[in-house]
Design brief:
The protein has about 140 residues and is of the alpha+beta class. Helix content is about 35%, strand content about 25%.
Length: about 140
């Protein structure tokens, strides 16, 4: 039995995340194995993809949700990481990294919050020199 074709995130969702991610110093966008990711110095600080049946998905494994779901993964640390990993929906913590948080992106998404989370994730991944540029 063949797998269904990959569903890619909508252009609108990608554009909304990119509108924050690509304003950050030395950040760049690239296609990932699925979806789109934003990186700084070869470190991924944001990744948008669609969790769907037929493909490995931490989101689907954790929630049992079977319909295609657009998710954003990003990095976090400290009190923010603790808060987000215990907040419940729309947040979840994939088991493959202690510093990665996932978030469902849907009609209820607070895009100002997404912008803050993507920026903080960038801070987590960027070298100190680039983090200082954000503070200027």
């Amino acid at each position: 039995m063949s797998r269904p074709p990959r569903i890619e995130p909508s252009g609108d969702v990608v554009a909304r995340v990119a509108s924050t991610a690509l304003t950050l110093p030395d950040a760049y966008e690239e296609d990932a194995w699925t979806g789109v990711r934003w990186r700084v110095r070869n470190k991924t600080f944001a990744h948008v993809l669609v969790a769907q049946e037929g493909y490995a998905s931490a989101y689907r494994d954790m929630t049992g949700v079977t319909e295609p779901t657009t998710v954003l993964t990003f990095r976090s640390s400290g009190d923010e990481l603790l808060t987000l990993t215990h907040a419940g929906a729309p947040f979840y913590q994939p088991p493959w990294s202690p510093t990665v948080v996932g978030m469902v992106l849907d009609d209820d998404t607070d895009w100002d919050e997404v912008a803050e989370l993507v920026t903080e994730s960038y801070r987590f991944c960027a070298p100190q020199k680039l983090r200082r540029l954000l503070d200027q």
